[in-house]
Design a protein that fits this description.
This protein has 241 residues and is mainly beta. The protein has two domains: 90 residues, Thrombin, subunit H (Beta Barrel), CATH 2.40.10.10; 113 residues, Thrombin, subunit H, CATH 2.40.10.10. Helices cover 12% and strands 38% of the residues. It is built from five helices and 13 strands. The strands form two sheets. The chain has a six-stranded antiparallel barrel. The longest helix is centred in the last third of the chain and has 10 residues.
Length: 241
């Protein structure tokens, strides 16, 4: 089983452009690559501006959006860090899983987020930094969804999450098999439970959590290479499962 301590180190917060708010979550899949939601990135990030991340240990570092390894249409963004600037994460990537059993118990790891002025968690206000949380739940029905945002639209294959309460701006956190710790998807959006289904649009202010499945993305050129590299390292992970 992947240890909780390792999950804590592998999951980091995505900071807002000004660095004073948590806008979402990202997680390592190898020593120099992370996954997060494409919709969390500012247009300037998509044009080359570095994304600021913060580990649970309080250390901040920067990552670059890698478009040719990402699947933007499915809300998947790959971020790259310079290994020499992030050595403490070497070997801490979480294993990815292609298959999903709808009856599986899962857990989500992410960060709380608060837009109130007193919750400024910039460099000079580290004491206000939100806690990392772990939430247990179950996989719900498989679904295809359309997420429409200003100037962006995403089409995703995934699943609803049962018994999981995720607050706004926690997108990007890994959804893991509760037994093995392997990542089966990542949190992306909220939808109305009665509206989930093939081609469903997700309106603003809706209710249940939707996860994007890793499996369908593993066939996409670019990301497939990263997935295969991650799978090649599973022999290491499986010794500890």
């Amino acid at each position: 089983m992947i240890t909780v301590a390792r999950e804590n180190q592998s999951v980091v917060a995505v900071m807002s452009k000004d660095g004073d708010r948590v806008s979402g979550t990202a997680f390592f899949i190898q020593s120099d690559r992370l996954l997060t939601c494409h919709h969390l990135l500012d247009p300037e990030h998509l044009k080359g501006r570095k994304v600021t991340l913060r580990g649970r240990d309080g250390i901040r570092f920067e990552a670059q959006f890698i478009p040719w390894e990402s699947v933007p249409s499915s809300d998947l963004a790959v971020l790259a860090v310079e290994w020499k600037k992030c050595r403490r994460f070497r070997g801490r990537g979480l294993p990815l899983a292609k298959a999903i059993d709808q009856t599986d118990a899962i857990r989500y790891v992410g960060y709380t987020a608060d837009d109130s002025p007193e919750q400024d968690c910039g460099v000079e206000n580290e004491a206000n930094f939100p806690a990392q949380i772990v939430t247990a739940g179950r996989l719900g029905e498989h679904t295809s969804i359309i997420l429409s945002l200003p100037n962006r639209e995403y089409w995703m294959q995934g699943f609803t999450l049962q018994d999981i309460a995720i607050t706004p701006r926690q997108s990007g956190g890994p959804i893991m098999d509760a037994e093995t710790g392997a990542v089966v998807g990542f949190a992306s959006a909220k939808s109305n439970p009665s509206a989930c289904g093939s081609g469903t649009s997700i309106p603003n202010g809706t209710l249940s959590v939707v996860g994007v499945a890793i499996g369908p993305l593993a066939t996409q050129e670019g990301f497939r290479v990263l997935f295969d590299e991650n799978q090649a390292s599973r022999a290491f992970y499986l010794r500890h499962l």
